[in-house]
Amino acid sequence: MSKTEELHQSNCEKYGVFCEKCQYNEASYWERLKLKFHLLFCGGCRKYSKKNTHLSAAIRNAKFSNLTPEEQENFKQMLQSNFVKIRLNKK
Amino acid sequence: MPPSKENQIKPENWVDRYSDFLFNYTITRVNNREIAKDLISETFLAGLKSMKNFKGEASERTWLVSILKRKIIDYYRKINSKKGRAEVKINYKNEGDDGEWLEEQVSNHGNVSAEDALMNDELKTTIFNCLATLPEQQAKVFKMKTIDHYDTEAICNELNISASNLWVIIHRARKKMAECMEDKWL
């Protein structure tokens, strides 16, 4: 990899992070502006930015309904106590 | 045949690894949190009891899902036998409506979204499958941030990482997720 290519890649890594922050609405004004400016010149980042937006949309569409941490903890306790019981029964 | 190394049963990991997948799988089918939780409890219990029957041919998750499927079918059998009794009592609304089929009077709401539910199911499964290909730390951070909607600060505190570290992890995770889902969904 040539030096300029390497530089380009690490640079895009930085803008990639800005792009992620945008997806979660956590980018600062300057980060958003810098990203927009970079996208004007960088086709690779433009492509990724588009894909990234689609990824966010897909996850929104999936409408996950998840267990709360407490519910997971209850499952863990239930599993553990029954695991011990089954082990004891075998012996 | 003893189970192969990668397909061994580890009940202590079940909740962390599979409970979200199983819960989402169940809730699209029974549409009720409490019932879904009960069914998953039963599945885990049945899994514990039949651990020695696990042959290591399928992955642990596939095996658990096959148990869960049976539990869901049992659940529907149970409520359907109750429903059967109720259906006998349905009356025609008016004497004059003799041309209408009874089926036409039943609202069609459940069926309209059946296809959507199927698509949604497939999408969720793809997301979970892709998530499973990520390194553990990336998967964890991505899931907390994107699916469980934790605050950046809360994740940083819990996992003891800096915010900039978190964003780099998120970036790596999302790059892989986008790649993994690209063909079909993006």
Automatic annotation (TrEMBL), chain A:
Stated name of the protein: Glycine dehydrogenase
Species: Mesonia ostreae
From TrEMBL, chain B:
Entries under InterPro entries matching the protein: RNA_pol_sigma-70-like (IPR039425), RNA_pol_sigma-70_dom (IPR014284), RNA_pol_sigma70_r2 (IPR007627), RNA_pol_sigma70_r4_t2 (IPR013249), RNA_pol_sigma_r2 (IPR013325), RNA_pol_sigma_r3/r4-like (IPR013324), WH-like_DNA-bd_sf (IPR036388)
Family matches, as Gene3D superfamilies: 1.10.1740.10, Winged helix-like DNA-binding domain superfamily/Winged helix DNA-binding domain (1.10.10.10)
RNA polymerase sigma factor 70 region 4 type domain sequence ranges: 129-177
Keyword presence, DNA damage: no
Highest taxon above the source species: Bacteria
Domain RNA polymerase sigma-70 region, first and last residues per copy: 15-78
UniProtKB keywords: DNA-binding, Sigma factor, Transcription, Transcription regulation
Family, per entry: Belongs to the sigma-70 factor family. ECF subfamily.
NCBIfam families in the record: sigma70-ECF
Name of the protein: Sigma-70 family RNA polymerase sigma factor
Species: Mesonia ostreae
